[in-house]
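Example complex used in Figure S2.
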Amino acid sequence: MSTAPRKSRDTVDDAIAHPEREQPYAELGLKANEYERIKEILGRRPTSGELAMYSVMWSEHCSYKSSKVHLRQFGDKKPETDKLLVGIGENAGVVDIGQGWAVTFKVESHNHPSYVEPYQGAATGIGGIVRDIISMGARPVAVMDPLRFGAADHPDTRRVLPGVVAGIGGYGNCLGLPNIGGEVVFDPCYQGNPLVNALCLGTLRHEDIHLASAKGVGNLVVLYGAKTGGDGIGGASILASETFEDGGPAKRPAVQVGDPFMEKLLIECTLEVLHAGLVEGIQDLGAAGISCATSELASNGDGGMHVVLDKVPLRDHTLTPEEILMSESQERMAAVVTPANIDAFLDVCRKWDVDAAIIGEVTGTGRLVIEWQGEVIVDVPPRTVAHDGPVYERPIERPDWQDALIADAPSSLKRPASAEEVRATVLQLVGSPNLASKTWVTSQYDRYVLGNTVLAQPEDAGVVRVDEGSGLGVAISTDCNGRFAKLDPYNGAKLALAEAYRNVAATGAEPLAVTNCLNFGSPEDPAVMWQFSEAVRGLADACLELGTPVTGGNVSFYNQTGDVAIHPTPVVGVLGVIDDVEKRTAMALGREGDVVLVLGETRDEFAGSEWAHVVHGHLGGIPPEVDLAAERWLAQVLVAGSRSGLLSAAHDVSDAGIAQALVEMSLRGGVGATVTVPDGTDPFVLLLSESTARAVVTVSPSDVAALESLAGQHGVPVTRLGVVGAPGADLVVENVYGGTASWTLDELRATADATLPALFG
Amino acid sequence: MARVVVDVMLKPEILDPQGKAVEGALGRLGLEGVTSVRQGKTFTVELDGEIDEERLAQVHELAGSLLSNPVIEDYVIREVTA
Amino acid sequence: MARVVVDVMLKPEILDPQGKAVEGALGRLGLEGVTSVRQGKTFTVELDGEIDEERLAQVHELAGSLLSNPVIEDYVIREVTA
Amino acid sequence: MRVGVVTFPGSLDDRDAARAVRIAGGEAVALWHADADLHGVDAVVLPGGFSYGDYLRCGAIARFAPVMGELVKAAQGGLPVLGICNGFQILCESHLLPGALVRNDSLHFVCRDQRLRIESTSTAWTSSYEVGQEIVVPLKNGEGGYVADEATLDRLEGEGRVVARYLELNPNGSRRDIAGIANERGNVVGLMPHPEHAVEPLTGPTTDGLGFFTSILKGLVEA
Ligand SMILES: Nc1ncnc2c1ncn2[C@@H]1O[C@H](COP(=O)(O)OP(=O)(O)O)[C@@H](O)[C@H]1O
Ligand SMILES: [Mg+2]
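Predicted assembly (1148 residues):
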């Protein structure tokens, strides 16, 4: 441990003196033309330290080089809004929710690390997104976890899922952040590429917004939090061992280990220094660590920074400077602080037992200069590292199999044709892994901490109270049906947005803004790039039409095994505002005798449905029609119905249609309903179609007319289905092909509850 | 009756937040000069019958897969008592 | 530079669900004849300087109060390397 | 009525405990772990969370915090103290309460709405309840299994110091379904479930937890 720090063998002077030295740019993931560009920018070859920085910052993950040209649409097609206080491009967008309050929210992927080491991969996924939120000056108040796994009964799913869930719980619970929702979806397409997306929501007052920029020549750059170790720097090891070191350093772990306790201290410490006005600029350290933090802070500010790398507190003293620059050690932050405030800043760090070190200062040189042991090892224009990375227009080609997929409509699949068959089909769906109760997962998450959770899973959206005085709150839901996106990426992305939007509205919140995590295969595959471009176009178009701007997000490419990509999975998160959380609508059936109605129109739509998937293993055809105007009208009815106290329950209709919606509402309330299929309606279509823009609601009998009139004003069709039963009553559907299908709550609950515990213990 | 004791430790380069917490506490409680604490796990496995080469190989196999996570941990079989 | 290794084990009468879970898993993975598995903790403490009687007494004291909870756990100082 | 709520590094439910005190009608006073001073409060809540990350054993490191020295003395002198979850663990580690809390038998962290029966109302924190009253409050822990030797368990039962018991399902393998216990005097209570999360109809499954906080205020007024 007490070995002397390693010398860099490659200073700027060396780079000038030895222009011929070969560099392992390809091993670091840089293309020949990218390496040439670096040389052009610098007017010489890069030093090994500079190469380290450029290689991580110009990686797909950090530079968005394949996605950038497409993501611009989110800005170009941005709906008119005065709610966006900070837009795309910062650590996270900030949305005005009124009364001087703002919220920031963002979703990010930690897919690959979670496959390699499920517990730590997922845990550090939560850690990373939480730091993004605190770096905006917000207090994190909730997390969500949209997850996708391979087949539920595959042995490797048994390795991955319990670890991921324990990691998310282990980190989030220990941070004291309620988990208010997420998704658990199984599909064989995710077998080698599980998706672990993590969302964090933060709240702040308008005046507390902070941005990542290093302004004010002479201001100090402070690195605080955990010490830097050799985590996640496989690439840097190549750099150090194969070219510059004989023998080479010890193998560095590609896996990062999280310390949620340190992160909790980091949250409290950061909020305290921000609120005390001790910070000029702030940045979290995530991917690319110090390389990213210094270059982004510098290029967003006055453009210059001088860093003395020897000052970085190290956990492992054998690290080379290149490795220190690339390390992805968790639980670190960087702040820019005036000399006048530095003592106060360090005092707060001491109070919270957080290590802090002044590693440099802001300069007016326009260059990011990093020295190590008295020699300059990096001297670059910071913008070229942080923002002017390569941009690619990757080839795009609609896959040749797309037409065959669409042509394979589900119309010929055998449908249930009697009450008994409908009964069995619904039970089969209720117990299928994607629809079964997720309590095995969610009971490992604390949903109560902070005392502001108004709704959490299994409700349609998580709802948290933001202001205890006024009852102002927000609702969030994330959704994506990857099967729809596979059938039609353009409309699939729209459907993902529509579903999340509908879920938020179902609680009574008005949808306001969007975040997303775009999980796709390799961008070097033109077919994947087509899916990606279609999905982005669909999402941007839909956001414009629904009036909900994209505030930020994340792209995860290379989710593929060999040349087989996952289903395109554009996970969309919608945030809504509710003026008074007391008014929120929950999904449980309650009062006996309340009338059960469906809002919206049901069509015969089964392509990509849960029924086709579970019963027939079928995926083909054209996904349900997208009608965003109808979504908007439906949302208005749901929000108005909640505000006026008209609705006693509401639940959006999506996977497995009205049948599944009724089952979930019954189980949640501990009471079934008796409903009747209207004459002239096909029972199977009514119960299991996945047409969009629909919700099941209940109102007291005396309010039916008021609801019908409210829906009428918005042009939303209303169908009266039946009434809520007495406590404990069965769920009964009459007029099903001349018979009655009914289920006791006990059998529904037993079926729904058995699946995940049987699979995962 | 045989007994095998397996020690599992985090790899030296992996962060050990537990060890760090203990390190801090030992210092606060007056133990001076602590330079590092690492926390590990120990499994004491009792087995019926003899422990021959083959069974020991099996234990090695399981120590490296079930008892430890090779991505972040190393193991040693500290003790084998026949 | 001195090193002290402290082993902490649950007292025999305290149920060890983690050990039990490992026991079951070892059996399922084909290791036959496992009669019991107990899981314990190990602390490897590195100290500057010498370790004399007095310091060792201090380590004992802390092993019995901080590192283990005497209500449910026993400890042994397995190794002292000067 | 001033009720102190201690914040350790890693305390999480300290705001919730303070809110519960306020809703019950008391004044919540923030106490800091590094401050060897109870600021003259009339009672103390040790809230839930993961003090020091719970890295060694839950509560093991917090027990040595400066504030705990004062607290142990005051508790021995009769100051009412309620330890919730991590607070319960800290009270056991401090030997203010017998026994210990170990890893859940399921090996999973568990968060659920838990039914309990109040077994003793002769403590400072349960006088608002009836003996045998059934309540539902959130439970959330990874190491909540209460263990003690048989003699200790028998003594706790015999002296009426089992404060609450799990009903319907034992969520963590606690011996004799014990959810909470008291010291001999009844001023110190440790509880694994979280009554502070059941004080508002909007955010809790019930408001059944409020009784713990009204009990202490009632007791203090009468004293
Ligand atoms: N799919 C997307 N949709 C909208 N914005 C995106 C998307 N992907 C990335 N962004 C935005 O690009 C910026 C850079 O992203 P990223 O490098 O992941 O941020 P950070 O380093 O703070 O995590 C962020 O503002 C992020 O919100
Ligand atoms: Mg960021």
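Residues A 91, 132, 135, 284, 286 surround magnesium ion (ligand 2) (CB under 6 Å). The longest strand of chain B covers residues 34-47.
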